[in-house]
Design brief:
- The chain is mainly alpha-helical.
- The chain has one domain.
- It is built from three helices and two strands, in the order H-H-H-E-E.
- The chain has helices spanning 3-14, 27-44, 50-68, and strands spanning 71-73, 78-80.
- It is elongated, with a radius of gyration of 18 Å.
- Mean pLDDT is 76; it is low at 86-94.
Length: 94
Amino acid sequence: MATPAKRMSESFHRAPHFWLTVSADVTNLKSARERLLAEVEAKTDIRLTLTDFLVKIFATAKFYMNKIVPQIFTRKQIIEGKDTSALDIGEEDM
């Protein structure tokens, strides 16, 4: 099993999990999609979805969070200047 898959599996079985539900007004997001839909589909032959926007929003937020808070808190230490992606943290880091 590849390292990322192994770490994801370990994380699922060892780490506590919680689910969060959030309501959001996406009226403006829907409007933006409608404005761009024909143009993007004509240029790329791909139908733009709300998921496309959400992935971009979350990826951008994560990118900026890594720049603002470039550290990982483990049980043993604070690791400075490391990507905060969960896939980068192995059991040996805990």
